[in-house]
Each structure stands twice: as C-alpha cells, then as structure tokens.
Amino acid sequence: MTQPMMTFNDGHTMPQLGAGIWQVPKDQTARVVREALEIGYRLIDGAKAYGNEEGLGQGLRDSGIPRDEVFVTTKLWNDAQGRDATLKAFDASMTRLGLDRLDLYLIHWPVPKADLYVETWKTLIELRDQGRIRSIGVANFNEDHLQRLVDETGVTPALNQIEIHPTLIQSDMRAVNERMGIVTQSWTPLGRGDFEAPEIRSIAETHDRTPAQVVLRWHIQHGLSVIPKSEKRERLAENFAALDFELSQADMDAIDALDQNQRTGPDPQTFDMR
C-alpha cells in the first residue's frame, strides 16, 4: 500500500498517516509501536506528557526497521517552556527515546498566560540549526500565536497539530494553516464516538468499510495528516487500510455537515496546565 507523503515548508517530508501513542500504557507501548511498524506505519507520534517515550524508542529498535525509514515526533510539555528548560527537556526526551536525532519536535500548547512560547520557539530554531531536530512545529496554536512566532522570528512552523474530527472540523484554522504554508495534523481524529453518527454509518455501509475507516479517510482527503491511536493490532491494521479507498464529494460534504464546533479537549487560548 502506497503511503502518501506531506511536504513541509522546510522541504522535508512526513507520512500522511501515522500511529499515535497517547494513553497507550507504558508496558504496552513498545509492542504497539513495533506492531504498527510491522503493519506499514512509518510515522509515530509521541510526547513527553504521554509518559511512554521509552517505549516508543524501544519499539523502534525492536522493529529492526532502519532509523531513517521511520518519522518520529515528540512534544515539549508546558512546564518546560523557556530557553533553559526547553534545552533540558529536549535532552531528557532524547535520552528516553534513545535517539540522537529527532524528525519533528512540537511545542505542545502555547500557554499564552505564561508568555514563553516565542522564547521556546527560538530555542527550537536553535536546536534545528544545530542538526538535532530535522523539522520544528507546534500543536494547538491559534492564528494569533502562529503570526506572533513568524513576526518575531521569521520562522514559520512546519506543522500545527490541532483537534479535528467530524464534530469539530476547524475550517478556519485549517485555512489559516494552509495560507501560512503549515501542514495541519489532526489529533483525536475520531472524536468522542463521531463515527457512530448515522450519516457516517451509512457511508461505511456503501463502501463496505468501518465507520472509523470512513472518518480517517475523510481526514486524508481533506489533505490532513492524521494520527489515530489504538493498542490493538487488528485496529491498527484497520486504520492503516483507510489509505486504500476513496470517498465521493457527496460523502465528504455529508461528514462536513456534522460540524458542531464541539471540542473534546481544552481551548488553546486558555489552557494553562503545567
């Protein structure tokens, strides 16, 4: 199965479909990562806050797949913003991962109240320029946060990972990212049971697919990178098979119409957990 690639504004590329490891238990992470790579995934999305970076690294090593063939993402947590804390946190993540180079490092949340995200972004630029990170980006950044990064550093994030699913389609932020040349990546892509909607079940029956596959295909055809999570090998394989069919424009429109501007996670403008 051919894996479509996304091209960043820095010229580097990333697989469009990946496996996320949020809420995967520490003692299961290495297995989940290894099985995902065996199925064909070549993008693994992790974060310091997930508490399982060691397992990500172990699964990568256990797979036997050459390091250069796998795209690895991790994220800086909110309590480590600011130059010195960011440098320390990055080193700690790399130790846990057992890697000497990272493909993509993200600022996990802007935390506007702390007002450290620009200083933190400058530190990511420094790490990138040292060759320790290939590409740098953000997660959960709104337009004003993104514009401030560009205005104060001249460097545009390669990727912005935001909450997107059929009941939160984020048309405005997707348009902002596209206008700025930023890849949009969807987290919580299935929402809170969005795939249970009758409209999605009907589309799934038409294509002889599962509702979850339909929702993932909707993300893919919108040009979004998507990182569904599962601890089960059969579900990982099912998710990966979203690459091998197509929805009609009518299908896409029907799913778009489910939008309720309904978040499952916090608001980036106010989230301050550290």
UniProtKB/TrEMBL annotation:
Residues 16-259 form the NADP-dependent oxidoreductase domain. Keywords: NADP, Oxidoreductase, Plasmid. InterPro entries: AKR, Aldo/ket_reductase_CS, NAD(P)_OxRdtase_dom_sf, NADP_OxRdtase_dom. Belongs to the aldo/keto reductase family. This is Aldo/keto reductase. It comes from Paracoccus albicereus. The lineage of its organism: Bacteria, Pseudomonadati, Pseudomonadota, Alphaproteobacteria, Rhodobacterales.
